[in-house]
């Protein structure tokens, strides 16, 4: 098949993944502000879409990490086919978890699928062990850090406002949530949209259409737009899970969770590490809930969410392996 047709298919799938990532992960940025009625769902989604786009346009460090850390695209014989298989595997898993309202990680899905497709094509030698390990470490440790920060921030708030009226506290923090929801949506764009940029750049290098992992402007604009459009569609099923089913969130809890997770995501972006915004935000909510009252958290549901996190990389890796083999039969 002509290389330009393959690249065109890849770009289409990457933007589709980005769009799905947008509506799948919109809940991450706005779940707490919607559940506490700090923002209406419509206004929350408008703010999230706008801030996602702005955040996506401002950074490229994570895109370069995605484009070169899992494998070297210039050394892959069937690099474009690998990317197609990876994107199909990640998209299938994202749609399955969205359908069931499970806040799984699009980042895990993409990284697992890309690794699986590379192994299917090149064997384990095709994987950049050091780069892949650094990404996995970031995916593992960032939720733990977010949980800890969420717990500490909420514990501090409890001490500061111990003798204050809950009604007055929540009234002020409900207004503050408008700012934190926008900040969280911005940081979501700085990290998540770059994954689609990175995978498109990976394909361009693999196809020999460019020599470096520098992200072209048209790639940045198209990925940012796809993410913003996906965000505008929303993801009410996952908003319901994260905003109401983990524990009853008050405005002060939502504010603490938003500021904690957004700080972790932005720090990761600045050091060029892709993290799961889903994992980070959910973990910060769990940390805040634990500080509020440990028994208030529905740990059974939290356990199911953690299981989905654990199985995402191996399942998407296996999916991409199978899809790659099927593609090569026809290509």
Automatic annotation (TrEMBL):
Give the UniProt subcellular location, in the record's own words: Membrane
Please indicate if the UniProt record lists Nucleus as a keyword: no
Q: Which UniProt keywords apply?
A: Membrane, Transmembrane, Transmembrane helix, Transport
Key word Lipid metabolism present: no
Pfam families in the record: PHO4
Segments spanning the bilayer are 45-67, 79-100, 136-157, 217-239, 301-327
Topology class, membrane: Multi-pass membrane protein
Record-given protein name = Inorganic phosphate transporter
């Amino acid at each position: 098949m002509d290389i330009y047709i393959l690249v065109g298919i890849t770009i289409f799938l990457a933007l589709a993944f980005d769009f799905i990532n947008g509506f799948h992960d919109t809940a991450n940025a706005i779940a707490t502000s919607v559940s506490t009625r700090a923002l209406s769902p419509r206004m929350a989604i408008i703010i999230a879409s706008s801030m996602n786009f702005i955040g996506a346009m401002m950074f490229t460090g994570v895109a370069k990490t995605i484009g070169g850390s899992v494998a070297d695209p210039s050394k892959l014989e069937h690099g474009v086919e690998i990317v197609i298989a990876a994107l199909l595997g990640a998209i299938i898993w994202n749609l399955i978890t969205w359908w069931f309202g499970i806040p799984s990680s699009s980042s895990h899905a993409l990284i697992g699928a890309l690794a699986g497709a590379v192994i299917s094509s090149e064997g384990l030698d095709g994987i950049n062990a050091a780069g892949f390990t650094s990404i996995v470490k970031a995916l593992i440790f960032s939720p733990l850090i977010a949980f800890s920060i969420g717990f500490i921030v909420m514990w501090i708030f409890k001490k500061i406002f111990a003798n204050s009226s809950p009604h007055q506290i929540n009234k002020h923090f409900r207004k503050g949530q408008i700012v934190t929801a926008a900040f969280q949506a911005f940081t979501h764009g700085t990290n998540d949209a770059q994954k689609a940029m990175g995978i498109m750049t990976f394909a361009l290098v693999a196809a020999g259409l460019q020599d470096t992992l520098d992200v072209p402007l048209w790639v940045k604009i198209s990925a940012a737009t796809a993410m913003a459009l996906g965000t505008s569609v929303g993801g009410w099923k996952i908003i319901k899970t994260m905003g109401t089913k983990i524990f009853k969130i008050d405005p002060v809890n939502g504010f603490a969770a938003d500021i904690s997770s957004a700080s972790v995501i932005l720090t990761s972006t600045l050091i060029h590490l892709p993290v799961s915004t889903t994992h980070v935000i959910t973990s910060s909510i769990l940390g805040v809930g634990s500080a509020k009252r440990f028994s208030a958290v529905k740990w059974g549901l939290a356990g199911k969410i953690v299981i989905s996190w654990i199985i995402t990389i191996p399942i998407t890796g296996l999916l991409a392996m199978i899809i790659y083999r099927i593609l090569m039969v026809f290509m």
